[in-house]
Amino acid sequence: MFKALVLEQEDKKTIAGIRQLETSDLPEGDVLINVDYSSLNYKDGLAITGKGRIVRQFPMVPGVDLTGTVTESSDDRYQAGDKVVLTGWGVGEGHWGGMAEKARLKADWLVPLPEKFDGKQAMMIGTAGLTAMLCVQALIDADIKPEDGEILVTGASGGVGSVAVTLLSQLGYKVAAVTGRAEVNGDLLKKLGATTIIERSVFEEPARPLDKQLWAGAIDTVGSKVLAKVLSQINYNGAVAICGLAGGFDLPTTVMPFILRNVRLQGVDSVMCPFEKRQQAWQRLSEILPASYFEQACREVELEEVAECAEAITNGQITGRVVIKL
Questions:
Q1: I want to staple 25 with a disulfide (CB 3.0 to 4.6 A). Which of 21, 90, 203, 215 is the partner?
Q2: Strands, E assignment, the chain
Q3: From the record, what ranges are coiled-coil (predicted)?
Q4: Number of other residues whose CB lies within 10 A of the CB of residue 13
Q5: How many Cα atoms are found within 13 Å in the side-chain-facing hemisphere of 49?
Q6: Region class of 144: left (phi > 0), else alpha (psi between -120 and 50), else beta
Q7: What are the C-alpha distances in Å from 116 to residues 127, 209, 282, 293?
Q8: How many Å apart are CA 284 and CA 264, to the nearest integer?
Q9: Spatial CA neighbour of 120 closest among 79, 85, 153, 91
Q10: pLDDT tens profile 27-51
């Protein structure tokens, strides 16, 4: 028997509860894993609270991230004792995820845990960190260099944003961090490497088609009117990597930044990211992230505390990462 957080649906409401399950209850897969840690992402929060249509079938064990030790494998790529990490692939949405002491997954979804990281550190990075690395790489691929100017990061105090600030700073970029709680998060963001802290309300004002050019590039996790404002301020030949919609999935902008300033808008997806690209991103994270990153705000919780944290993360009340010890 093992413990799991299980989501059920009753009268179209999502109910989260701790249950004892057997290994035979797990869905099909190539690899059985003893889960050491999971983490709480914004998407997990939406799934657990029922505020978003994330879960595609019930019952469901949430958790889009996990790390642990292989105990059984029918795939030659993994052997008992191997340390692995899982992010994305619809796990926690359509396939039971990481908020349980055991998981059975497809081998194609797994990545060997980089030697530099332990399980807790991997979950302090998780989907958020992987996504941040892919966003940073998108700016590098767009030939945005540190000498080109400052990089703007929206939602900077969240999981993706905080890692993005750290990575950019480590690579020599000057970073302007946008946060809704500047008085609370400003010191942490400066510690992570931000040179400028900007209150989010500045970017919630209606955007002009074109505004003053301020940023060589940007990483946006918010979408909607915040992204519209960001686009209006990007330098000629700049680029914006986008990966989130915490502020909404609409985009009230015009074609002006794209056709008059040659601005590029690059979508970034980490869920279905191919193995090779995913593995390269994890390797780059192990090379770039400083030890000081793991001293940032991080809350380690037990499974019984997850529902409360899920409510908090959907209300914008979480700073840094929430790691779940299984």
A1: 21
A2: 2-10, 13-21, 31-40, 65-73, 83-87, 102-105, 110-112, 151-153, 175-179, 196-199, 215-220, 234-242, 264-267, 298-301, 321-325
A3: none
A4: 8
A5: 17
A6: beta
A7: 17, 45, 10, 13
A8: 24
A9: 85
A10: 999 999 999 999 999 899 999 999 9
